Amino acid sequence: MRVPEPEDHVDRLLARISTAGVEAIDLDVEGIVDRIGSINKRFKRVQEEVLRAHGLTPGDWHVLTRLRLTDGFRSSPGALASDLELSSGAMTTRLDNLEEDGHVRRLPDPADRRGVVIELTEKGRAAWDAAADVQGRREAFFARTLTKQEQQQLNRLLRKLLFGLEATTPK
Hints:
By secondary structure, the chain is mostly helical. The chain has helices spanning 9-19, 27-53, 58-68, 77-84, 88-100, 122-143, 148-167, and strands spanning 74-75, 104-109, 112-120. It has two domains: 8-53; 54-165, Orthogonal Bundle (Arc Repressor Mutant, subunit A), CATH 1.10.10.10. It is built from seven helices and three strands. Strand 2 (104-109) and strand 3 (112-120) form a beta hairpin. Helix 2 packs antiparallel against helix 6 and helix 4 crosses helix 5. The mean pLDDT is 93.
């Protein structure tokens, strides 16, 4: 005798769609989209809690991440803005706030007298490292229900889905 799998909230939604006779919705696709969306909301909520506990915003985190993972912990404001897909004005605001908090500092650009280089400070690195440590443990907690093999399989499938999305635009 086969034991039925437990239902999640997406299964219940899909059952309602099915009984409503909505034929335009592919239930398998809807299940994928709704589950990824629900998981993403939970990831974001936990990440925001972790960042808030370390005095950071998601925007701060993205800037500090780029600097933390850059050789020498330095970058130009333009390169950061381009990497994060931000306008120069939005980037300036983020950098102003991070500098005010002591997480980054502006230094003269040795290659361009008119330019500046943004450098991650020790305080910024410590904040990023501490938040990354907690966030890493939280993410591992989320993935704990999957074996290592299942995690790798899911990564392969999500990579394939993402490649497909990056290569095409919806019609």
